[in-house]
Hints:
Layout: E1 3-11, H1 15-22, E2 30-33, E3 50-51, H2 60-70, H3 77-85, H4 87-97, E4 114-115, E5 125-126, H5 132-145, E6 150-153, E7 156-163, H6 164-167, E8 174-181, E9 187-197, H7 218-225, E10 230-231, E11 236-243, H8 256-259, E12 263-265, H9 285-299, E13 304-307, H10 313-319, H11 321-329, E14 339-348, E15 351-353, E16 365-367, E17 372-373, H12 385-404, H13 429-445, H14 452-475, H15 480-501, E18 525-526
Parallel strand pairs: 1-2, 1-9, 2-6, 9-16, 15-17
Antiparallel strand pairs: 3-5, 4-5, 7-8, 8-9, 10-15, 10-18, 11-14, 12-13, 13-14
The structure holds flavin-adenine dinucleotide (FAD) and succinic acid.
Succinic acid binds near residues 48, 256 and 383.
Amino acid sequence: MQQHQYDVLVIGSGAAGLTAALNLPSQTQIAVLSKSDLLAGSTYCAQGGIAVALNSNDSIDNHLNDTLKAGAGLCHEQTAHFTVNHSHESIQWLIQQGVPFSKNKDEAQDSLHLTWEGGHSHRRIAHVADITGRAIATTLINNATQKNNIDLFENLIAIDLITMRKLGIKGNRCLGAYVLNQENHSIDVFKARFVILATGGASKVYLYTSNQDGASGDGIAMAWRAGCRISNMEFNQFHPTCLYHPQAKSFLISEAVRGEGGRLLLPDGNRFMPRFDDRGELAPRDIVARAMDHEMKRLGSDYLYLDISHRSSTFILDHFPNIHERCQQFGIDMTQEPIPVVPAAHYTCGGIIVNQAGQTDLHGLYAIGECSSTGLHGANRLASNSLLECIVFALSAAQNITQQLHKPADNPEIHRWDASQVTNSNEDIMISHNWEELRRVMWDYVGIVRTTKRLHRALHRIMLVQQEIHDFYSHYKISSDLIELRNLALVAELIIRSAMQRHESRGLHFTLDHPETLPVATDTILTPIE
Ligand code: FAD
Ligand code: SIN
């Protein structure tokens, strides 16, 4: 076992984690962990872009109003204010870091090209063609690599947080994390004065998702086990348009395709969105995904179509080179024909409750990015507000930590991970079986349209899965698959329990048993039992 000591431990190397690390003072010793390679996570996959009101006919107030409207009455208005008020500064910071945002061709050299996405009343999405996330991730990683005070670690997966309470010491502070080194299988201790969870979302809890395999809600599960409150987990966002193809795993077709004129079509070639919402294809995501689900069930169809072939090939290739290339690999030419698409789990709107500085309920523990619940997204996130939230709250958390670095640190003895009671497993089938079952249960019973009966059924299944995982965890050596499955099963329970507590339909949570929206919007807050 190795003991590492840092000022700040950042768990997650996506937009949120790296932004925080890059904004801490240069004398601060920082460790940034990724459970896979540094590019793993949703940031690298982000396509559409980052929301910021830059057009002369747009304003911060318009951005705020669109955010609140998409959030279906549940956004925390102060948080939304705070976020959009810092949007210009956030884009400026990314530009200074070297992110090569796409520019307008026919105007002044320095004006950014802004695209359009659902729920936005104006063109407002700054982007790097259709690979915004890739550009942000590679730029920030490159910059972090050049900092002497930042150590970047790959293939280290945090298992659990170390807290005073868990060590039986008086007080309530986070002291670091136990971490599995996937290369030599040792379980190391990372001690830190401040720990930042930037572990991304949990959409892998659903069978069909736009997310990569690592989106298993690790940070949310670790924070819960460390005693932090979690909110609004019932609001998992389904993105309307993921590529439908037997071999195309998790590939998104950006909402910007609809923003630039793409139309959703039934198998007979007719549009249907205008029947559901005046904004047509550019209605917020909850509305579009639900409409698609309705039409697919009505027609017994496995997928619908997204068509932008009426725009010129030059335009399509210029704006969507990556999507075009990926579709081509599956024999689909989007310049000539519609793309088969389905809705899939995309974004975790709820998460670890934090304040405007990213502070959780536990002293010394921060949560930023998709694993956090800041109150910005309410019952449905406005497109491209996620990367913005990552940057705004990472800057804020870094500032808050910087103000506290002068304070003396607690330095209690941390005992090593006890693996004396466990043996090597010869039953790994338990992991793959339960991984599959859990994600299917969530898709079938806790998906776009819910009922109370289905939620009860799902909870029953998930609790059985949890019991098996618990037995396995107590007897066998830990692996990254087991860590993720354990976290996913906990997050599934939190989603179901949150959905059961909401006796109304609002934003992304729609239940046939309570189709109405209550007059007063309240957060669902789950508190761990001590
Ligand atoms: P991530 O980028 O997901 O990074 C998580 C990090 O945590 C990774 O480094 C991972 O290895 C690490 N990690 C997780 N668990 C552990 C652990 N136990 N131990 C160690 N490390 C761990 N949002 C927008 O605003 N605009 C868009 O255009 C957009 N497009 C998207 C397209 C796709 C396909 C997807 C999936 C999402 C998109 N989103 C978009 C959402 C947005 O990309 C994410 O919400 C955001 O990037 C999350 O960033 P993050 O830093 O919180 O986490
Ligand atoms: C997209 O490009 O459609 C994703 C945008 C987002 O999730 O905010």
